[in-house]
Amino acid sequence: MSMLGVIGGTGALDLFESGASGNSTTRWGQASAAPVQIDLGAMKAWFLARHGRPHRIPPHRIDYRANIAALKALGVRHIIALNAVGAVSPELEAGALVLPDQLIDYTWGRVHTFSDDAQAPLEHIEFADPFAGPTRSGLLAAASAADVDLLEGGCYGVTQGPRLETAAEVARLAADGCTLVGMTAMPEAALAREAGLDYASLCVVANPGAGLEDEPISIDEIHRVLQRAMQRVVALLQRFSPESLA
Ligand code: HPA
């Protein structure tokens, strides 16, 4: 059985009791926080707080390489990434859990590859299906075991942040085929693929995207929605079966 890592984003800092800590120093730099061991019921996993502990590192300043490398050094071979997102599809309600199967990367200026120096020579990765594999299937099985609704499929548009989008940007994302918008799945997903790790994003819809509703998006409401939704995320993760990673 191989080791699972969980990368927690906004609203997902203290979901689990934590045990031993791992090393946060890597040859790429410092991970956002020390990974900590958590108990998922049927299995142990390593949890890493993507924005640091306390939550302070903006999406464009996260050292995604160090985070992936720190988890890999602990034996992690499968990653569940928790991502707070806005809805681009009007039919997606705040609080919905979604398992995207595609992404479009709109970020810029982020350090986005391990193939960056003589010690890590150029390697091209195949990335047609950025989220695929046993972790994703395991999440679907866990959702059904936990009786938690998890919408299968969707395209995650990854924006630079930390500001939210304009209404026109969300309209463009919709025209491009995105159904969700968030700030953190890239370069994380691609770096995981470069590192040979299986990676799935479990998205929590925090709000309707900019322009989908008449009122402005409330940041306080985003935090309230995420806090409520995390109970379902925990219930789902606690039914994640080690057999799905065998
Ligand atoms: N846009 C980008 N990222 C987000 C949003 C959003 O509307 N909500 C939560 N994360």
Question: Can you walk me through this structure?
Answer:
The protein has 246 residues and is of the alpha/beta class. The chain has a single domain, classed as Rossmann fold, CATH 3.40.50. It has 5 helices and 13 strands. The strands form 2 sheets. Strands 1, 2, 5, 6, 7, 8, 9, 10, 11, 12 and 13 form an 11-stranded mixed sheet that branches. A hairpin with a 4-residue loop joins strand 5 and strand 6. Helix 2 packs across helix 5. It starts with a strand and ends in an 8-residue tail after the last helix. The site of hypoxanthine has 13 residues, from strand 7, strand 12 and strand 13.
* Average pLDDT number: 95
- Compressed to H and E, one letter per element, the order equals EEEEEEHEEEHEEHEHEH
Low-pLDDT segments:
none
The CATH class designation is Alpha Beta
Q: Using the CA coordinates, give the radius of gyration.
A: 17 Å
Distance between the termini: 5 Å
Percent in strands: 25-35%
Number of helices: 5
What's the CATH topology name?
Answer: Rossmann fold
Name the structural class.
Answer: alpha/beta
Bound molecules: hypoxanthine
Helix content: 10-25%
Number of strands: 13
Shape: globular
